[in-house]
Structures are given as structure tokens and as C-alpha cells.
Design brief:
The complex is a heterotrimer.
Chain A lengths: L1 H4 L3 H19 L7 H21 L6 H23 L3 H21 L3 H26 L14 H20 L11 H12 L4 H15 L6 H11 L2 H24 L8 H7 L1
Helix pairs in contact in A: 2-3, 2-7, 4-5, 5-6
Chain B lengths: L2 H25 L3 H26 L3 H31 L47 H5 L5
Helix pairs in contact in B: 1-2, 2-3
Chain C lengths: L5 H26 L5 H25 L15 E15 L6 H6 L9 E11 L1 H24 L6 H20 L3 H19 L6 H32 L7 E2 L5 E2 L5 H5 L7 H19 L7 H4 L5 H10 L4 H8 L1 H5 L2 H22 L5 H20 L4 H31 L17 H15 L5 H17 L1 H4 L23 H17 L13 H30 L26 H24 L1 H7 L7 H4 L9 H22 L9 H5 L1 H7 L4 H47 L6 H23 L1
Antiparallel strand pairs in C: 1-2, 3-4
Helix pairs in contact in C: 1-2, 1-5, 2-4, 2-5, 4-5, 4-11, 4-16, 4-22, 5-6, 6-7, 7-9, 9-12, 9-14, 11-16, 14-15, 14-21, 15-16, 15-18, 15-21, 16-17, 16-18, 16-22, 16-23, 17-21, 17-22, 18-21, 18-22, 18-25, 21-25
The chains are: A mainly alpha, B mainly alpha, C mainly alpha.
Chain lengths: 272, 147, 759
């Protein structure tokens, strides 16, 4: 009944996207900070989020709905806060919170390993690296370049337009089982409906897909590991090499430009 | 649970995170915040990939996200080294400090004068020292020989 | 030679100098000091062929044939080489013109005329005479040039141009089609331009060449329009008669069938217009008033070029044209009278200007203009005597004027390029051969018996006298001109081409209808006019003798004075003093002196030339043959001419014989008249104000238009990409995030496009 009273989803989406653009523009640092702009931006942002929520499909149960809504809101709002915070340290902290939200979303989607790995690797390692760099390089107080942005309006419009297009395409995904299937799966399903060969393939796939889709499955990590080191062994090894290369490379770059003669000294003083 | 609805909603979340990260990269001038925004974009991608992986019922998307994670770590390491080099040359973490690739007859872009921030700088409480401070002089604190 | 037909020989006459010119252009640099050989070989061979053609044609006419009396029938021989252009059924001639009369079929409908230009050459006595003169005098001038130009860096170029000129001039007099004549009219003008501007690095030479070409252009315009009118009236441009496909004769404009036809030529307005336009062309080429201004300036060119072109041959092209078109002229008596008036006036004015010139070559240039005026005056009488006297004078003038010019060149050569008579004097001991030949030429020019000029000038005066006092000569003009008189001025033509032909038709029909009625308006062709012209010519004869001998006395008599520039070059180690010219230059002088001395007497005594020319088809038109008189020696006129000449020589002797040439000049003696003559009657200044300055103004406007409007437009268009670039340049600001933003916007555009297509 509420849905009947509201305008069509397309209009709501358009309105939400517009509100998102304007709110981003208002919230981004633009030189002179006014409290009114921040509040208005926040309000419009909330409106936009409400619009997105309204036009989405319902998930089914209230519990699932609530959990998903909470974690996704945390992720989105923290993400927005990351990019609009004046102080980069605050941005980093907000980013940590966004990571928490993303981790929740991943868990809801049934990716147990990734949900934890996100926290461990990102928040635990990468974010700390960022904080170290900020410690070394950030001036005390707000630097002038933290209080201005490059082309806030155009970027906000671009981001909002992109969001609108993506949402439109996502909204067109239909419930047709043949839609958006992998080719092998689609062929197997077609074979399955015809009642042809491959019962054990179908069974294996069914088990796999059951495990993959259940957030509370017990041997999901093992399965993931098996998949990773089975089909994607070469890629894993390559990723290992890549990590080694990155390690060596960063050390090499640092030591090449290390200069004890004092050439870098003026830079240091300006930082303070 | 409505699988299609979950897929769609997760994809929308991923899209929102991606767009937010995009806006951040395009807009913010602090190099660190730029990289944070890039990481935000990668998070959005991860969410989308995992959503698709769930929809298809196999681990392909998750494996890809693991690699994305790995590469993001390497990229962050190397990029931060470069950020520090940039800081060493210019003394600030401003992306607008690097304009030499502009056309030769365009002027350098400088910021307008900003109104002063009239907030009181926070004063931090002084604690009584517990122990002995190491012997260090003023210059040492300010100088770092290399990063 | 006997094996070759006259047609082949006729083709050889222009062809051999052309080959010589081409070979000189191709091999000239390589031949070095022998670079004159191809050209001289070509011209010499052409001279031999021309003389043999002359002799052959003379035999055919019956000259020297003791048994027969020479015939007065026309003698010609036409050879057609190829058809240059042709359009079948191109043109419907206007009703009432002779062209329409030729093409009217039996049932009264007119067939369409075809436009056809064959490259045809025609040999008749007039052509043959001129060919001989051109090639022989050309040969002598070329031999002279070997010595004169021997240390000039442009040696092969000069000979190539000489040979080219001989080719063009021979083709001009041999061509049997008005369009071909026009082509070679222009060609000789071009050769003249190239030869006047031979030393083109000298600004005066370049300006003089330009002036000659542009003034000639005015005359060429007349020839072009005359050609158009001739085509419209007569339906053909050929001189000779041609056979059409079905065996009927298409009469040429100057062909025998039309000449024999009593109503073959159109008089009235159209005929007079054609004649006046042809006169304009002749004035341009032959330097008559008012287009004479280029000839004195043309003396900037090398002296052999002046001798050949501006004395003997090119300037006689106008005389040739009028003589050739005699049938066209005799039906328009007013045009004929105008020819004489222009000629005699020019003769007098040029003689007056020549009396105060101090530059030897300028004196000779004005003398040329004056003598050409004599020839025109004689042509304009319209009698057989007049025409033949004009050609006779042309022949003798070619000899003695070339002689005088080459002599002046010899003086200039040994004086180191100085030709101002006030700077040297008494050269008769230094350069005896030059002095002797120059004296012979001067006597011929002044008209002293028994040298050449005496006889030819005497005949001209006789022709004028016969028109001025018709009774005294005992013959009457019985045959009326073929068509009626037309009163001047001409009625105005309408603007549209259709209107023109309608007016043409109207006037042609009116005039031919009224040909029998006597004119009621006094025309130019009145005895009083001719008497005035006679007295003018007599005075001019006296002036001619005066200025010629003034030049002779100033140059060759008096104390010997040599300018400093003389003798700075050596002829093969002859030392550094001024000296007589080498034999390669003096032998042509001697040959021409002999010709000047003997030719007049011989041609007059045997009446060879007049009987020879009487066989020219153009001169066998009944209106001219009716005026033929038996050749006689007019003693009283000879006496008057000789007295005038003697008076002139005497005054010149009083003023200059034996004196220093830089003494008091005649110009100051004449006072304001002298200033008038020295400034050439201010005609140059008049042209500068009337023509040159307005044209310069127009050119200035055009230049400003070109610079500001057209260039401004182009530059403006060029500035558009610059502006666009300046605007687009701001995209590349060096700020990386801006680049990323542009990339994102582009991607969004593509996505929008794809999304709209999916819908």
C-alpha cells in the first residue's frame, strides 16, 4: 500500500541520485566550511539512502533484511565519511569502520574467509601502513590542501550519474534462471532439464553451490582453499611472487633515493 | 531468502561504495585520502564479486577477491613509498604540487587564499613524566635523514 | 632545290630559323663562343630559300622576261599544313552579310558555317618581298651580333631570340589566316619584349620592355576585335579561297574570288570599324601616333636587336597588314584617309622631336617612327602607286635604317657603351669604315639622289600629290568605291551581343542599299586634306635631312673626342685604345651600304618592284588597279624633295659641321618650342596621368583588398584552430585528477550511449 502511494521506482531513483549528487557536493571540502552546508548535505544524503532502500527488493525475512540493512548502512555511511573528512587521520579511521561494514556484507553473502580476511589484511595491515605514513608526513593542523577539492561539482555529478546507471542495470536483472549464468552452468542446466548425462557432476555442483551459498557452512574455508590451490595454483604462486617483488621494490626505491647529505632536509622542515 | 534480491542489493551496495571511492579519488587533494578512496573502490568491487560468486554458486568470485586483496596490499606498499618520495621532494602531500606536465604556456594553478580556520588549536594535557626522557635535542626531532 | 616544290620551300623559310632557335636553346651553353652557329645557319639557309622563292616567283610574274609584258594577274601559291581547329556547323551568319550571301542555298535557307582554322601559308609577291628582306637583313644583323655581343654572358640567349624572332616574323607575313596572323603578331611582340629587356637586370631596360609590350597590347586588342568582326561579316578568317566538301568555293577574305567580286567587301559602319581596328593594331606595332611611345624607350635593348626589330622588320608588320588588307580599306575611303592623316602627322611630330635628341639611337628611333609615318601616308592614298611606293620605301628603309643602327652600334661598341653625341666627336678618322657607311645611310635617309631613299620618297610624294591635285596628273578616279561613304563618327553599338548583330544587319543592309547615292556629308577624303598632307610630308623631308645630318656632323666631324669609357675592352689583344670595329661587324655595314646605294636606283629603273607587287592578289582589287598609272619620274616633285633635303643639310652644317658636339644646343635655340620637342610633346606625361596613375590606383585598391580582405579571411580561418587549441589546451593542466575526471566523464558518455541503445 505504501508502494502504491509512492511515485514509480524510476522517479525515486532519479531523485535519490540527484540528492546524492547534491549532498556530496555540499559535503566535500570547498574552502569555506559552513555548518549549514554540512547539515544540509547530511540530510540530503540520508534522503538519497532512503530512496535507494525503498526501491530495492525485499529480501524475504525481517531478520535478514535488518542485518543486511545495518551492515550496508554502516559501510556506505562510513565510506561517505571517509571521502569528506577534512582531516586525513579521521578519513583513515572512518575507512576502518567502512571495512567493518564491508566485512559484514561479505559475511551476509556467505564469504566466511573473505569477511575475516578483509579485516585482517586491510584494517590490520594496509590501514596501519597508511597511518604510519600520515604520522611521517602530515603537517600539524589542517593543511590548506585538505580544505579544498578539485572540481567537486563535476565529480559529484559524475559519481552520481555512474551510480544511477549502475543501479539501473542492476535493477534490470531478472529472476529468469538462465539469466546471468556462467556458460558451463547454463549448459549443465540445459542438459539437466533435458535429463541427460552427468549426474555426479550435477551432484558435485549442487554440493559446491550449497556450501558456497550457506553462510554457516562448516567446511567452506576448506573448500575455498581446495579451489584456490587446485584450480588457481598458478595464480597463487604468481601472487606470492608479486608480493615478493613489491617488497623488494619498495625497499629498493627507498634506498636509492635515500640521501644523508641534507638534500631532503628542507622538505622535512616544511612539513612541520 | 530471495536470492535475486540479495544479489541486487549487494550489487547496489558495491556500486555505491565504488562511486563514493571514485568521487573521493577525483576530488580530494591529499595523497593519502586519494589512496584511501582507491581502497574504498576496491572494497566495492570485492562486494560485487562476492555477490556474483554467491549467485553462481561457486568460488570463482571469492578467489578473485583474494587476489584483489593481495594486489591491493602490494599496490599500497609501493604506492606509499612513492608518496613519501613525493613528500620528500615537495614537502607536502598535495597532488596539486605536481603540475609540470601542463602545457608550457599555461600558468601554474595556485589556491585562492583560504579564510583562516578560527578553531582553537587543541591543547593537549601535559602529563607528568614517568621515567627519564632520552637525551635528544631539538634538531633531531625535526630532522629525519631518510624515510 | 629544283626537286623541291615551292610549297616545301615556303615551309622551310620559317622552319629553319625555328630549328636554329631550338638548337641554340639546347646546345648554346655547350657551344660557348660558337653559340651563334645554329641560329646563323638557320637564318642563312632561310635567306637562301627566300631568295630562290623570290626569283622563282619573279619568273612566274614575268619580271625580266624580255618577250612578254608582265601580267597584272594575281599570283599566289597556298600550302595548307594541317587544320589547327575546327568546329562544324558552328555559326549562322547574320542576314545581309557576305557570309550569309555565300551560304544561302537555292531555296533561301542558310546553312551553318563551319569554324575552321587551317595552318596555311601563302606565297605571293608581297610576302616574298618581305620574306627576303626579313631573312637577309636578319642574317646581316646576326653576323654583326657575333662581334657586338661577343663578351656578353647572354650570348646564346641573344641568338636564340634572334632566330625565334625571324621565325615569328616570317610566319606572320606568310600566314594565310587572320588568327594565325594574330598569333604571330603576339609572338613578334613577345620576342621584342625579350630582346628589349635582354639586359633585364637594368631597371630601365625592364621598364622599357614592359612599356613596349603593354602599348603593343592596346594594338593587339584592335586586331582581336577586328578578327571577330571579320569572322562575323565574312564567315571565314582565311585569306585564300578554300574548297568546301561539296566542291563549292568558300571565298577567303582576301582570296581571288572575293577580290574579283564587285560586291565582295562590306563598307559602311562595319567596314570602317574593321579598318579602324586594323589601323589601331598597325599603329601599335608600327609605333604611330598615339601608340608610338614605346619605340624610343626600346633603344635600351642591344643595338642589333634595335636594328633588326625596331627598324627593319617588326615595325613594318603594321605596314604589311594594311597593305595586305588593301581590299578592305579601299571600300572605306574615310578609313584610308585617316591612315594617311595618322601617318603624316606622326611623321611630322616624330621629326620635330628628333631634332632635339642628343642620344644617337634616339635620333634614329624617331627617324624610324617618322619614316613609318611616311609609309602609312602613302598607303592611305589607296592608289596602286601609293601601295607600291610604301612597300618600296619599306624595302629601302630596311636597308639604310639597319645600316644606320648597326653603325650607331659600332660607334657605341668602340666608345665603351656611350651613345650621347655630346660626349664624343670627330670619329671619322678613328673609324673610317663606320663613318663612310654611316654617311651613305644618312644620305639615303635624307633622300639625296641617287641613293635609295631618294626614289622611294619621291614616289610617296607623288602618290600624295596625285591625291591632292588630281587634275595635274591627268587621270581621274573613274571607279567609285564599291560601297557608299559613311559619315563619321560611327553610330553607337548596342550592348548585347544579339543587339550587336542586329545593328550590324541593319547597317549593312542600309549601307549596301544606299551605295549608289552620292554622299551628302563632307568626308575626310577631300583633296584639301591631301594637299595638307603633301606639304606636311615635304616639311618632314626637310626635317629628316636636318636631324640626320646633325647627328652625322656631331658624331663624325669636329675635333676628335673620345669618352673615358672607351677602349676598356680588347678585341683579342688590340690594345686599350678606342678603335674601329672588327671585320665581322664592318662587313655587314659595307653590304648594307652597297644595298642602300644601289637598290633604289636599280628597283626604280627596272620598275621591277612595282610590277612584281602589282601581281599581289590584294592589290589586284579593281578599285586599286583602276588607279594604276604608268611609271614615271616626277621631276618637279624630285626637285622639291631635293631642295627640302638640301635646306635641311645646310642648316645642320651651319649648326654643327666642324664644331665641338657639346657646344650650344639647338634646343636652347628654339626656346619654348625646343622644350616642347625635348619633352616629346608631353605625350608620355599625358599617358602617365591619364592611364598609368588611375591603373596604379586600381592596383592599390586591389592590393589592399587582397591583403586585408582575402588574406584577412584566410588568416581568420587559420586562427580558428589556434583559438580552438588555446581553449582545448586548458585540458592539459598537469593536474592528474583533472585527467582522471575527463576520463571518467568520457566513460560515462559511452555508458550512457550504450544504455540508451539497450532501451
Amino acid at each position: 500500500m505504501i508502494a502504491a502511494a509512492l511515485p514509480s521506482p524510476g522517479v525515486i531513483l532519479a531523485g535519490a541520485v540527484t540528492a546524492a549528487a547534491v549532498s556530496l557536493w555540499l559535503l566535500l571540502p570547498r574552502g569555506a566550511d559552513s555548518r549549514a552546508a554540512s547539515w544540509l548535505g547530511g540530510l540530503l544524503g540520508a534522503t538519497a539512502l532512503a530512496g535507494f532502500v525503498l526501491t530495492g527488493r525485499r529480501l524475504g525475512g525481517l531478520g535478514e533484511e535488518a542485518v543486511f540493512l545495518i551492515v550496508s548502512l554502516v559501510a556506505v555511511i562510513s565510506g561517505a565519511a571517509t571521502i569528506v573528512s577534512r582531516s586525513p587521520v579521521y578519513s583513515a579511521i572512518w575507512f576502518a569502520l567502512a571495512l567493518a561494514g564491508v566485512s559484514g556484507v561479505l559475511l551476509v553473502l556467505g564469504a566466511q574467509f573473505l569477511g575475516v580476511a578483509t579485516i585482517v589484511v586491510y584494517a590490520g595491515a594496509i590501514l596501519v601502513m597508511f597511518l604510519f605514513v600520515l604520522m611521517l608526513a602530515q603537517p600539524a593542523g589542517l593543511a590548506p590542501y585538505d580544505r579544498v577539492s578539485n572540481e567537486p561539482l563535476l565529480s559529484a555529478i559524475a559519481g552520481a550519474t555512474l551510480l544511477g546507471l549502475l543501479t539501473l542495470s542492476i535493477g534490470r536483472l531478472s529472476a529468469d534462471p538462465s539469466c546471468c549464468q556462467m556458460p558451463s552452468k547454463a549448459a549443465a542446466m540445459a542438459a539437466g532439464t533435458a535429463g541427460k548425462s552427468g549426474d555426479d557432476v550435477k551432484a558435485g555442483d549442487a554440493i559446491d553451490s550449497a556450501i558456497a551459498t550457506d553462510p554457516l557452512a562448516t567446511d567452506q574455508v576448506a573448500r575455498l582453499g581446495g579451489e584456490l590451490f587446485g584450480r588457481h595454483l598458478l595464480a597463487v604462486e604468481a601472487a606470492g611472487v608479486l608480493l615478493l617483488v613489491a617488497l623488494v621494490g619498495s625497499i629498493a626505491v627507498v634506498s636509492r633515493h635515500g640521501d644523508p647529505s641534507g638534500e631532503l632536509a628542507p622538505g622535512r622542515r616544511a612539513a612541520s | 531468502m530471495n536470492q535475486l534480491a540479495l544479489l541486487q542489493n549487494a550489487l547496489v551496495v558495491g556500486a555505491i561504495l565504488f562511486s563514493l571511492g571514485l568521487v573521493g579519488i577525483l576530488t580530494r587533494r591529499n595523497l593519502i585520502v586519494m589512496f584511501l578512496s582507491a581502497e574504498l573502490m576496491l572494497q566495492g568491487i570485492s562486494v560485487s564479486l562476492v555477490a556474483w560468486s554467491r549467485h553462481h554458486g561457486d568460488f570463482g568470485g571469492q578467489v578473485l577477491v583474494i587476489f584483489v586483496l593481495t594486489v591491493a596490499a602490494c599496490e599500497a606498499a609501493v604506492a606509499l613509498v612513492f608518496v613519501l618520495q613525493a613528500f620528500a621532494r615537495t614537502g607536502r602531500l598535495d597532488s596539486a604540487a605536481w603540475q609540470s606536465l601542463r602545457e608550457s604556456n599555461l600558468p601554474r594553478r595556485v589556491d585562492r587564499e583560504l579564510p583562516a580556520v578560527d578553531t582553537v588549536p587543541p591543547t593537549f594535557p601535559r602529563l607528568t613524566p614517568a621515567g627519564v626522557l632520552p637525551a635528544a635535542d631539538e634538531n633531531d626531532l625535526l630532522q629525519r635523514e631518510h624515510v | 632545290m629544283q626537286a623541291m616544290s615551292p610549297a616545301t620551300l615556303l615551309v622551310l623559310v620559317p622552319l629553319l630559323p625555328l630549328l636554329g632557335a631550338i638548337l641554340t636553346v639546347a646546345l648554346g651553353r655547350r657551344l660557348g663562343p660558337r653559340g651563334h652557329l645554329p641560329a646563323i645557319a638557320g637564318i642563312a639557309a632561310a635567306a637562301v630559300v627566300a631568295v630562290s622563292l623570290l626569283l622563282g616567283l619573279g619568273r612566274e610574274v614575268g619580271i625580266g622576261d624580255a618577250g612578254h609584258a608582265p601580267t597584272a594577274r594575281p599570283v599566289e601559291m597556298v600550302t595548307t599544313l594541317w587544320e589547327w581547329a575546327g568546329v562544324d556547323a558552328a555559326y549562322a551568319p547574320p542576314a545581309g552579310s557576305p557570309a550569309a550571301a555565300d551560304t544561302t542555298r537555292a531555296d533561301g535557307t542558310t546553312e551553318l558555317r563551319s569554324f575552321s582554322i587551317p595552318v596555311a601559308l601563302r606565297l605571293d609577291p608581297l610576302t616574298s618581298t618581305l620574306l627576303t628582306i626579313i631573312t637577309c637583313v636578319g642574317l646581316l644583323v646576326a653576323i654583326y651580333s657575333i662581334g657586338y655581343m661577343h663578351d656578353d654572358p647572354g650570348y646564346p640567349r641573344f641568338f636564340a631570340l634572334l632566330a625565334m624572332f625571324v621565325f615569328s616574323m616570317t610566319m606572320l607575313v606568310a600566314a594565310s589566316n587572320f588568327l594565325l596572323v594574330y598569333v604571330f603578331w603576339e609572338a613578334v611582340g613577345a620576342c621584342s619584349y625579350l630582346l628589349i629587356g635582354f639586359w633585364f637586370t637594368k631597371p630601365e631596360a625592364a621598364k622599357a620592355a614592359k612599356k613596349a609590350f603593354l602599348v603593343n597590347r592596346v594594338g593587339d586588342f584592335g586586331l582581336a576585335v577586328a578578327t571577330f568582326l571579320l569572322w562575323m561579316t565574312y564567315g571565314t578568317l582565311n585569306f585564300h579561297d578554300t574548297l568546301s566538301a561539296d566542291g563549292t568555293i568558300l571565298p577567303g577574305i582576301l582570296g581571288q574570288s572575293r577580290i574579283a567580286d564587285a560586291a565582295g567587301y562590306v563598307g559602311g559602319a562595319v567596314g570602317t570599324a574593321i579598318c579602324l581596328l586594323l589601323l589601331l593594331a598597325a599603329c601599335g606595332k608600327s609605333a604611330q601616333l598615339p601608340l608610338h611611345v614605346w619605340l624610343p624607350d626600346a633603344m635600351e635593348g642591344p643595338t642589333p636587336a634595335s636594328a633588326l626589330i625596331h627598324a627593319a622588320t617588326m615595325v613594318t608588320a603594321g605596314i604589311y597588314l594594311v597593305a595586305r588588307c588593301a581590299p578592305l580599306f579601299v571600300v572605306c575611303p574615310d578609313a584610308l584617309a585617316l591612315v594617311s592623316i595618322v601617318g603624316a602627322t606622326t611623321a611630322l611630330v616624330a621629326a620635330l622631336i628628333g631634332t632635339v635628341q642628343n642620344d644617337l639611337k634616339r635620333v634614329l628611333a624617331y627617324s624610324t617612327i617618322s619614316q613609318l609615318g611616311y609609309m602609312f601616308a602613302s598607303l592611305g592614298t589607296g592608289t596602286m602607286l601609293g601601295f607600291t611606293a610604301a612597300i618600296f620605301h619599306l624595302v629601302t628603309h630596311a636597308f639604310f635604317k639597319a645600316l644606320l643602327f648597326l653603325g650607331a652600334g659600332s660607334v657605341m661598341h668602340s666608345m665603351g657603351g656611350v651613345i650621347d653625341m655630346r660626349r664624343f666627336g670627330g670619329l671619322r678618322r678613328l673609324m673610317p669604315i663606320t663613318a663612310a657607311t654611316f654617311l651613305i645611310g644618312a644620305l639615303a635617309l635624307a633622300g639625296v639622289a641617287p641613293f635609295a631613299g631618294f626614289f622611294s620618297k619621291d614616289e610617296i610624294l607623288a602618290a600624295l600629290h596625285s591625291k591632292g591635285w588630281p587634275d595635274a596628273h591627268g587621270e581621274h578616279h573613274d571607279a567609285a568605291p564599291a560601297s557608299g561613304h559613311a559619315a563619321l563618327p560611327l553610330p553607337p553599338e548596342e550592348g548585347r551581343p544579339g543587339g550587336n548583330s542586329a545593328a550590324l544587319v541593319h547597317f549593312v543592309s542600309r549601307m549596301t542599299a544606299s551605295s549608289e547615292s552620292a554622299s551628302t556629308v563632307p568626308a575626310l577624303d577631300h583633296p584639301r586634306t591631301w594637299q595638307t598632307l603633301f606639304w606636311m610630308s615635304l616639311i618632314t623631308a626637310g626635317l629628316t635631312a636636318f636631324y640626320t645630318f646633325r647627328a652625322v656632323f656631331m658624331t663624325f666631324t669636329g675635333p676628335l673626342r673620345v669618352p673615358d669609357e672607351a677602349g676598356h675592352h680588347s678585341h683579342g689583344g688590340a690594345g686599350s685604345a678606342a678603335h674601329e670595329s672588327p671585320p665581322v661587324m664592318t662587313i655587314p655595314l659595307v653590304i648594307l651600304a652597297i644595298a642602300s646605294a644601289v637598290s633604289g636606283w636599280w628597283l626604280f629603273a627596272t620598275h621591277a618592284l612595282s610590277t612584281f607587287l602589282a601581281a599581289t592578289p590584294s592589290l589586284t582589287v579593281p578599285a586599286v588597279t583602276a588607279t594604276a598609272t604608268p611609271p614615271a619620274f616626277h621631276f618637279d616633285l624630285a626637285l622639291q624633295g631635293t631642295l627640302a633635303a638640301a635646306l635641311g643639310i645646310a642648316i645642320a652644317a651651319v649648326g654643327h659641321l666642324g664644331r665641338r658636339s657639346d657646344g650650344p644646343q639647338i634646343e636652347r635655340f628654339l626656346g619654348p618650342l625646343g622644350t616642347l620637342f625635348a619633352n616629346r610633346f608631353f605625350i608620355d606625361q599625358l599617358y602617365k596621368g591619364l592611364v598609368v596613375k588611375p591603373l596604379e590606383g586600381v592596383a592599390l585598391v586591389a592590393a589592399a583588398f587582397d591583403r586585408y580582405v582575402i588574406d584577412g579571411l584566410v588568416d581568420g580561418i587559420a586562427r580558428i584552430p589556434l583559438a580552438l587549441g588555446a581553449w582545448v589546451r586548458h585540458l592539459q593542466s598537469g593536474l592528474v585528477q583533472r585527467y582522471a575526471l575527463v576520463g571518467v566523464l568520457g566513460t560515462l558518455l559511452i555508458m550512457l550511449a550504450l544504455a540508451s541503445r539497450l532501451r
